[in-house]
Amino acid sequence: MNSFLVSQQIKRFVPFPVVTDAYNPDEPRDAGGRWTGEGGETSRAERARASYKPATAKVQRTAEANEHKLAMALGGSAQADNSAFDVMVGEKHGIEVKTIVRGKNDKITMHPESLQRKIEFAASNKIEAHTVVFDHRNSKIYYREGVGSFRLKYMKEINKIGDLRDYFK
């Protein structure tokens, strides 16, 4: 078959030029399987690996204790693992509770799948979503309406746990 005809057929299916001269299957890959020019990990992956702090059983128990403490202070109920929200206050408010024990960054993150599950649950059950962060590094509590990945400086700092009641009426 004529190479001109083949290239014309490819153009119908691929709306951009196909570059094959730069392709080298032996080029080193990073941890995510992407080809790199240097053969190492991307700087983002290196930063993530450097700041990663694995959760220990002690840290997990601290987080669970915060969920129960918040539920008691607000007259709500702590939910089972894998529930959309950690604490429910009545049938109107769902709270995601995050705990920072030894992290270096002043932010919390939420995986996209978890975020989507919370948003869908809140919409289908007509509840308001909230996020509360317990920062054990400096004994502070933060609040923000909604769920997601947030920097602490964009959350409202709360003086004491009882002050959160005003948000859940």
Tell me the helix content.
25-40%
Assembly state (oligomeric)? single chain
Question: Which topology of the largest domain does CATH recognise?
Answer: Trna Endonuclease, Chain: A, domain 1
Radius of gyration: 24 Å
Order of strands across the main sheet: 1-2-3-5-6-8
How would you describe the overall organization of this protein?
The chain has 169 residues and is α+β, with helices and mostly antiparallel strands. The protein has two domains: 3-51, no CATH class; 57-167, Trna Endonuclease, Chain: A, domain 1 (3-Layer(aba) Sandwich), CATH 3.40.1350. The chain contains four helices and eight strands, in the order αααββββαββββ. It has helices at 3-13, 43-51, 57-74, 112-125, and strands at 77-78, 87-89, 93-100, 107-108, 128-135, 140-145, 150-151, 156-158. Strands 1-2-3-5-6-8 form a six-stranded mixed beta sheet. The protein has a two-stranded antiparallel ribbon with strand order 4-7. Strand 5 (128-135) and strand 6 form a beta hairpin. The longest helix has 18 residues, at 57-74. The N and C termini lie far apart (74 Å). 18% of the residues are buried. The model has no long low-confidence stretch (mean pLDDT 83).
